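Weekly structure sync, notes
Attendees: PL (lead), two postdocs, one rotation student
Agenda item 3: pending single-chain targets
PL asked that the sequence for the first pending target be pasted directly into the notes so everyone works from the same version. It is reproduced below exactly as submitted, 276 residues in total.
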Amino acid sequence: MKAFWTLVAKNLHDARWSLFLTSSLLGFLGWLLVHVASLQETKIRQALAGSGKGFRWMQGMGLDADPPSVEIMMAFWNHPFIILLAAMFALGRGAGAVGAEIERGTLDMVMSRPVSRSTYLAAHALTTALGLLAIAASLAVGAYAATFYNVLKSPPSLGLLMEPALNLAALAWPMYGYTLWFSSMDIVRWRALTAGSALTLAGFIARVIAMIPVFKDSWWRPWAERASLFTLYDPVGAVAGRGHCERDMAILLALGAGFVALAFLVFAHRDLPANS
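Predicted structure, written out during the meeting:
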């Protein structure tokens, strides 16, 4: 167990700058989006109560005519920047777990110690899980801190904000899982990162297309929604209690765990380059 925790500490040290930057940016975005919501809250309520086309994208997210302040805040958490930052951290960690060590020629040195392959990969998986939890916490804390400096009709609690934040972390977990799986089969980082990024982008595009009103009655729309991980990310539903946040998070965590298990299986039986 000492070797395992030593590897976790090493991985956290290696990931410190990416984790710090991602957490800081998400904390700032959490604060900024609360500020935007406070400035637009009255206008948003008026638009939702009327029959005009203003803020139709918020109506499509399930907001009622007079939603609580936290639901208006959560509508902004669907912004691509929020999702992109969490995805970038997960994809980078997954691609670098094996490929980066082989590229640097340091994997042989690590494997020459009394460390099994499963211990090595488990340390990487735990490091990423801790990182995603830290990222989720920074987003929620940033938003919660902003409620003390911006006027909202009904400010939310930190506990309520943690639910959609954890949903975001759960969304990034399968992205890490399938990128780690790609990395466990390869000897370079860029191919795993490219494959993971392409799969993530395809899922995001499928979700966006499925939400376009003109495709509402298309026969393929339900299939596009089911094929996209992003369908399971619903911050508005998480705070409103109308969605299935716990079920969606369980599905995301199970998918991520399945891909991580595949990575363990591949990495345990593959040949490693002699000069790694």
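Discussion points:
- The CA atoms of residues 86 and 172 lie 6 Å apart.
- DSSP finds 13 helices and no strands in the chain.
Action: rotation student to compare against the earlier draft before next sync.
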